[in-house]
Amino acid sequence: MTRVLVVEDDPQLVRALVINLQARHYGVDAAPDGATALRLAAARQPDVVLLDLGLPDMDGVEVIKGLRGWSRVPIMVLSARQASDEKVAALDAGADDYITKPFSMDELLARLRAAVRRTEDTPLVPETTLVETPEFSIDLLAKKAVRAGRDVRLTPTEWHLLEILVTNPGRLITQKQLLQEVWGVSQSNKTNYLRVYMAQLRRKLETDPSQPRYLITEPGMGYRFEG
Ligand code: CA
Question: Model pTM greater than 0.70?
Answer without folding.
Answer: no
